[in-house]
Amino acid sequence: MQSSNHRLRDMEQHHPLLSAGADVETGSLAAGVMVGGPHAGHTAGNRTMWFIQDSCGMVCAGMTWFLVLYAEFVVNFVMLLPGKNFWYSLLNGATFNSLAVLALASHLRTMLTDPGAVPKGNATKEYMESLQLKPGEVIYKCPKCCSIKPERAHHCSICKRCIRKMDHHCPWVNNCVGEKNQRFFVLFTMYIALISAHALGLSGMHFFTCIKVQWNECSDFSPGVSVLLLIFLCLEAILFLTFTAVMFGTQLHSICNDETEIERLKNEKPMWERRMRWDGMRAVFGGSPSLQWCNPFTGLRLRRLLLLTHARRGGSEFSV
């Protein structure tokens, strides 16, 4: 694939001439389940659902949901509902459950959103000629997925695709964190950290209250069962709070410095114009600072979900 006007370098580096925001095809196929017909990923206006078929990632994602739902069970049925203070239970229950819903919604958006996958096998002679490259310009091909590598893209061995602005692959969301879903991953870590801190605070208050009175009056469960459930919740909350708070801070630092975790670890020199601080935040979260930045449902359209559901009934195609 070499002509007098340009060269195609079959390397694993990335200094291409394609912009990070430009799609090399109208759509892209998901590395997992693609809902729709055989050619849905290549047609305009396509509707695809991204899902990675990785056994380890699916187990980790399932564990995440189980632990969040476990925390909801303990908070609601062990601590709040048996409580005698109606307003205390109502306010804390509404707050905790709202944050839990936002955390799970952010997890789903992170897991089911295409992180910025480069279409597979687009490094063809015909497509390269359509790019109309200038003499001497160099583009790079990924030897693993046979794709033209955009700037700042890296190949993920689990997703088996090159991902634009890939930060890392997170098994807990069973997906890469990249250009298109980093916002939801940041929200996920933030909301998990908040409900973990809230659960720790509620557990401390519950222990303090139950010490003053009989344990049978504090919960509908036996004292031994209640203590075991609360201890496990506290351990879970401490681990989740530590992990997600660190990840949240790391992600914000990367966004404000316009540098992914892979670029930092590889100590790559920036070949792009950096977006610093608020410019980087706007690029990831979109628009000026507002409450919409904290909304994981932004951009989620009911009509699109109905189309995906209808397409799934018609059959699904599995691709790698």
Automatic annotation (TrEMBL):
Designated name of the protein: Palmitoyltransferase
Organism expressing this protein natively: Sander lucioperca (Pike-perch)
UniProt subcellular location: Membrane
GO cellular component, one term: membrane
Entry GO MF terms: protein-cysteine S-palmitoyltransferase activity
One Pfam family cited in the UniProt record for this chain: DHHC
Broad class of the protein's primary localization: membrane
Chemical reaction(s) catalysed: L-cysteinyl-[protein] + hexadecanoyl-CoA = S-hexadecanoyl-L-cysteinyl-[protein] + CoA
Positions of the Palmitoyltransferase DHHC domain: 141-267
E.C. number: 2.3.1.225
Top-level taxon: Eukaryota
Membrane topology recorded in Swiss-Prot or TrEMBL: Multi-pass membrane protein
UniProt keyword terms in alphabetical order: Acyltransferase, Membrane, Transferase, Transmembrane, Transmembrane helix
Family: Belongs to the DHHC palmitoyltransferase family.
Gene name in the database record: zdhhc7
PROSITE patterns according to UniProt: DHHC
Entry text on domains: The DHHC domain is required for palmitoyltransferase activity.
